[in-house]
Target: Selenocysteine lyase/cysteine desulfurase
Amino acid sequence: MPLDIDFVRAQFPAFSEPSLQGQAFFENAGGSYACGQVIDRLTRFYRQRKVQPYSAYEPSRLGGEEMDEARARLAALMGVETDEVSFGPSTSQNTYVLAQAFGQHLKPGDAVIVTNQDHEANSGPWRRLAERGIEIREWALEPETGHLPLEGLKALLDDRVRLVCFPHCSNIVAEINPVAEIAALAHAAGAVVCVDGVSYAPHGLPNVAALGADIYLFSAYKTYGPHQGIMVIRRALAEALPNQGHYFNAGDLCKRFTPAGPDHAQIAACAGMADYAEALYAHHGGPAGAGPTERAAFVHDLMRAHETALLQPLLDFIGAKNSVRLLGPRQAAGRAPTVAMVLAGRGGEAAARLAAKGIMTSGGSFYGVRCLAAQGVDPDHGALRVSFVHYTAPSEVEKLIAALDEAL
Model:
């Protein structure tokens, strides 16, 4: 059964909001619309349960239960244990905390591999470990294609490498990297892997256990939820790394790497992300009796099939423009629907022209300064980036192509 776009869009209040009518949203890589299930839970928490959670009185008890529900249900969808999921204020903040832990754990002379394809959040914090005597090795992308070659990684791996950090897909290049294969190579060399899933998770939550990732990071506000960073840290690694929280929380896995007080309401509202996935599964006739990871895989495939069908005509159109450089693969099957292009003028100028035509997008470097520079693009010049997800309608892509044809 193909994705029922009318049902999908009915789950997002933004599509019935009068102030947004006539606007086509193509900046989803910067943050998605929130689904109604998340908004309802967030509203209920603030109205009924905005108290300190986990006490015996009813509003407190219910608030704590909702926070626990969010963690348990998201963990189940990703195939990991409940306490292997942690929340923090953002993915960038979560990564900085993890880098602090690794900085205390690693020894001078140990090596960490990072890429120049990644968002700065999964590059900069690790590169700063050089100040502690850690060797930083860069797995470089191919300048013409933006591709991360496996041979490049193999050349960097040896018995000194303790950590390999890379994106599931780049927020600029958008090529889907073979996480399971990369993880297997790293593990064989005795290293653990940290995967930046921020640009991939909006297109379907992955089975983190099947991927073999030791750390998987993504953002709830890009996966139809509130502004929280979500991180999976597998148990053996979490227990080996130094505690970054209050000393008396050291024995609680999901508190070891969140030193700041959590946003109770937003964590509780994240259960709405699971509600939404379950609603998609039920509406589209998912098989009865399937487990959480199987249901998540069903929803993932629904989303990807819809997105891929919409993406290929856009890639074909841009690829035929001699005045435009398309960054990343030209085939939709191998990439996320995040499309960065380099124009004669600055990306921000093109975004302004598109805004006048009812297309919401943006231009710039998108915290991928290293990624652009490695491909020969001046980060100050930047790129125009259009990005969509499964709730985008075919008519909106047609509108985008027509607007691009005029603007370019």
